[in-house]
């Protein structure tokens, strides 16, 4: 029996009444929330393994939209099943083979086109959580149309030195108590970025926080964690605002 790598319990969640609406773009469904005024700034949110319907991720979309961005969370799993809390961790590696966070380019291109042509977006940022954090790291190396990125606790894949040559400013957020990402990995990331990265980047580790900490809704936060969760979210928004 593998230990559950996500220490936050996805079962005990309060319901969430979304502020946005669902759209269909080519072969992809997406959840969109817009601010009440016109803006040409947008943010793509990439969900974690629990998918685009998960209440926590919709809360994040609404939160970012509240700061004045057209915010969209596409279904990067393209209608296939997300990971479920009832699934067995022994099957996780197989599930990941069919849900590769490095194979998101096509979907990202479809969503970028939609934001530019249908929504009038001129500057587009991206944030992603866990699985989505890995996808953001990948896209910030591949897609120059993304003006800035925030990767939240995405496992760091070390396949080549090219992994550190980011195209645009990227902020990496980690939890100190995340047992899926070691300090050694974070230190190596920092070392390599110093060596290869030619754009602005930032790495920050939040004390006492486990994997998945930054996407909790207020009523699901523990009082001790709340200040760090709020700080991480403010840091995420501030990074986006700096560049977009």
TrEMBL record:
Source domain of life: Eukaryota
InterPro entries, alphabetized: AB_hydrolase_fold, CMBL, Dienelactn_hydro
Annotated family: Belongs to the dienelactone hydrolase family.
Protein name, entry field: Carboxymethylenebutenolidase homolog
GO molecular function: hydrolase activity
GO cellular component entries: cytosol
Dienelactone hydrolase domain boundaries: 28-242
Compartment(s) of residence: Cytoplasm, Cytosol
